[in-house]
Specification:
270 residues, alpha/beta, Rossmann fold, six-stranded mixed beta sheet, four-stranded antiparallel beta sheet, 25% strand, globular, binds adenosine-5'-triphosphate
């Protein structure tokens, strides 16, 4: 027999729950007594693409690096507040960093392939994390990740002969992304601050983010606001290491609530 539910209950039962993957609560970090990030609070939701925007030096890259504990490698780091991945406290001294960096892959703006074969660039992490343990499954993984990054057709005959560092820079960038994907991360932190990318490569990278979104939660820094507007579901505006505003991309770009966000958007060509 059908029992109708009160409206609030029936809506709750159809709306998918918002799952938090990474959570920051009043998070801040100082390096050598310089406060680089301050009082940042927001949740990264499973399956979303979050774009980070802000002026040069706002703290976009610093935030990405802080999430995978790459910022506190320097001496004199002091953190405030909380930064969590699921139920793991990222700044707990016992945090398993290799596991953290497997589940949250950081792809920096500088291309840094290993000076080893293309195959080894992909296989290294997969071996380390015991993702592919025999030659056949490794071959499948190498092919799958290179295909996902639109690189397979270019390098398939040179996997063992050619070094990652011998590829042209735009292909090295794709190789670094493939290397990150090979360990099957849940979250991708993509830092693409640099503007030195040609239009064809830019279009391919944007297409890739769209494709990767199906399987990953993504935090993205792009060279232009136009790209963030095109790709991101939500956008966080940072200035001077602080979160100014976070909202849907549509709200941020058309009806931002904070005057500093409106000024930043208006003064930067979208
Ligand atoms: N390892 C570090 N030690 C000390 N200060 C740092 C470190 N890393 C970043 N900073 C400082 O943190 C601030 C934010 O830098 P960050 O590179 O995150 O800015 P950004 O928003 O990514 O800028 P851009 O768009 O120019 O890349 C800068 O003042 C920078 O000097």
């Amino acid at each position: 027999m059908f029992h109708s539910l009160p409206l609030h209950q029936s809506l709750a039962s159809v709306a998918p729950p918002v799952e938090t993957v990474i959570s920051l609560q009043n998070f801040g970090i100082a390096l050598d007594r310089k406060q680089v990030l301050s009082d940042i609070t927001f949740d990264l939701r499973r399956g979303e693409v979050l774009g980070l925007i802000g002026r040069a030096g706002a703290g976009k890259s610093a935030l990405l690096r802080a999430i995978v504990r790459l910022l506190d490698e320097s001496r004199g780091a002091a953190t405030q507040g909380r930064l969590r991945y699921l139920d793991h406290d990222i700044y707990d001294p016992h945090c398993d960093l290799p596991h953290l960096r497997r589940m949250i892959a950081f792809v920096p703006q500088q291309v840094t392939p290993f000076p080893t074969s293309i195959w080894d660039n992909i296989a290294y992490g997969a071996r380390l994390h015991r993702i592919a343990m025999d030659k056949a499954s490794m071959a499948d993984l190498v092919e799958e990740t290179l295909r996902r990054c639109h690189l397979w057709h270019v390098v398939r005959d040179d996997l063992h002969r050619r070094r990652g560092t011998d590829l042209p820079v735009h292909q090295q960038r794709l190789l670094c992304l493939a290397r990150a994907l090979a360990v099957r991360p849940e979250v991708l932190l993509l830092d693409r601050t640099t503007g030195s990318i040609d239009q064809t490569e830019l279009a391919l990278l944007n297409q890739l983010v769209g494709e990767l979104k199906a399987d990953h939660t993504i935090v993205l820094v792009t060279p232009t606001l136009a790209e963030t507007a095109q790709i991101a579901d939500r956008v966080a505006h940072l200035e001077q290491g602080r979160l100014v505003e976070i909202d849907t991309a549509e709200m941020i770009f058309t009806a931002a609530l904070h005057p500093d966000t409106r000024t930043f958007i208006d003064s930067t060509a979208v």
